[in-house]
Amino acid sequence: MKFKSISATDKISGWNVKNIQFNPMLTLLVGASGVGKTRILNFINALCQIAQGKSFNGIAWKVEFEQDGHDYVWEGEFEAKQNNDKFIPDLKENKLTLVEEFISDNGKIIVSRTDGSFAYKDTEMVKLDDTKSAVELLKGEDTIKPIYDGFSQCYSLNVADTSIHVSPVVDVSKRNALNIMLVKALNMFSPLERLFLLRENKLKEYDVICQKFQEIFPTVEKIDFTLAKTFNETLIPVLIIKEKNVATWIRQNEISSGMMRTLLQIITLVLANDGDVLMIDEFENGLGVNCINELADLIMEPEADIQVVMTSHHPYIINAIPVKDWKILTRNGSDVHVHTAEELHIGEHSKHEAFMQLLQTPEYRTGQNR
Fold first, then answer.
1. Distance (Å, rounded) from C-alpha 100 to C-alpha 216?
2. 173: burial class by Cβ within 10 Å (0-12, 13-18, 19+)?
3. pTM recorded for the entire structure
4. Distance from C-alpha of 58 to C-alpha of 11, rounded to nearest angstrom
5. Which residues pair with 309 in a beta bridge?
6. I need a labelling partner for 144 at 20 to 30 A (CA). Which of 107, 268, 284, 356 fits?
């Protein structure tokens, strides 16, 4: 999947962003704190959940994207009920009604849902669940399945998930019957679980990840796993790292947060599939200067054909990303505005000048639209 543009409105708070354009490979959202960078990532996550049948209070959207050679437009709007959280499903009820929904494929409308009627490919449908999107309800249809599959490939990089869950796939008795495609498909597992499965199945991607990690941390001699018993005697893997000229291994709970975050990002990028959309909020959090440039290179030159949408305040990151990939956000009240560097006359001569110009623009310093 490749996002082209998104417009979004939260009718509860009044938050609104119109027609933010995404680059095919990398989009860096920059701007003052509070202008809406993280909220845009949250909204993309909400869209992915709507595609899987969730309902969200007072959300309206229009998203344009490409999937399997088709250009799609998906529009929709949920009813608004006061006093519910905006981006989290109502866990008590979760029965917010879709006011309207439209899907077009290469300019031809294939879903039209409004005023209680539901038409699919010009045929009126029997009454279906009006709290679930057409993407979820019709995911078995040939024309809708690619849309559902595309949104299933969108995910946030969760660098906080360092857990090893007790599960049949990770259990030592069933851990060595997987090929690389199966391991890549296990998005429900943490990055460390998937790293363990790479090791157990002797897949070359394990060595690739270790090599990239050691290039960033040259003092690391080896990455491995040991086994520990849980309270019910189940064996689970625990990450360990051996450093040069150090006799003892460093166990998972003793590894520095910067090292761990770097490793998780490398695992996620190496195991990405073509068509994945990866969202990274505040890319630089917990990373040292020695990690940032190397990881930025991995993001700008991924092995798979992926799309990355990320936010950052860090000068090393912003400086490392080409100016053409910047989207500079400003806000007037609840309205978010999106600018390109070209529109603000940034970076006409050099990358360094572009970064310094960005810092000096009133749009970046104040977050307000002029």
1. 50
2. exposed
3. 0.86
4. 5
5. 27, 279
6. 268
